[in-house]
Amino acid sequence: MSFRTPARVKKTLVFSLLISVPMGICIDIIAAFNNSWFVPVTVFPFRLFGTVALEDLIWGFFFIYSPVIFYEHFLDKGKHRLSDRWVKYLAWPVIALVLIFITVYFSSPELLVIPYSYFWLGVIFFLLPSVTFLSFFPRLLSKYVKTASYFFFLALLFELTGLQLKQWTFPGGNFIGWIDLSGFRFPFEEFLFWFILGAIGILSYFEFFADDRK
Q1: Is-contact 67 202, C-beta < 8 A?
Q2: What is the DSSP letter of 113?
Q3: 31-40, 82-91, 132-141, 143-152: least confidently modelled range
């Protein structure tokens, strides 16, 4: 799709990098503090902050890039120019959030131990932004659902394959529930926030910061 939609690649690439790298590091560190998930084996010789596998950041980039380029190619007929203004509006909140996180990490790391952290991360970064954005722009819901439906099945296959190969685990019990499927077990939060709301949340951020909301 990137080759078939070259005019959309630059904007999608910048958006994906601005979100995936800083937010991926912060979320992965919180996950490590709370045993939400863990990547036991990494092909790289080090982990960021001693905990974050670089594979998580690579996965996070494509987790964002893929639904956005799909959406841009098949469903979005709006503007596709890269604007310095939206980059600034997106970058400053991300920088502020990362600075706050780093301050907490080095000064009061105990604050990062959060009961049901996966649930609260999903609510704060996916559920609330999606509901808020779509309450103002409900006409986008049908396009979001089409995109999310496709990536739901991809996420399911990816999850089952990853669990079969033991590429990641969920070592803690700090979840609101579990789903058992074909002999595999994963948290309900994984199903809700990645399978169902993942693409919808990403597209809400994309339309708000980087597109024309049409």
Answers
A1: yes
A2: -
A3: 82-91
Separation of alpha carbons 96 and 92, rounded Å: 6
Report the C-alpha gap between 186 and 33 in whole angstroms. Answer: 18
Q: What is the pLDDT of residues 161-209, one digit of tens each?
A: 999 999 999 999 899 999 999 899 999 999 999 999 999 999 999 999 8
Nearest alpha carbon to residue 83 among 34, 132, 10: 10
Which residues, 6+ apart, have CB-to-CB distance to 57 below 8 Å? 20, 21, 24, 25, 28, 48
SS in 3 state form for 130-173?
HHHHHHHCHHHHHHHHHHHHHHHHHHHHHHHHHHHCCCCECCCC
Q: Which residues are CB-contacts of 161 (< 8 A; sequence separation ≥ 6)? A: none
CA atoms within 13 A on the CB side of 211: 22
Model confidence, pTM? 0.93
CA 174 from chain centre, in angstroms, equals 20
Pick from 7, 131, 163: which is nearest to 81 by CA? 7
- Is the pLDDT score of 85 beyond 80? no
* φ/ψ bin of 166: left (φ > 0), alpha (ψ from -120 to 50), beta (otherwise): left
pLDDT of residue 79: 60
The residue ranges of every structural domain in the chain are: 6-210
Report the distance separating Cα 17 and Cα 64, nearest Å.
9
CB 121 within 8 A of CB 27: yes
Which residues, in sequence order, are CB contacts of 32 under 8 Å at separation 6+?
38, 51, 52
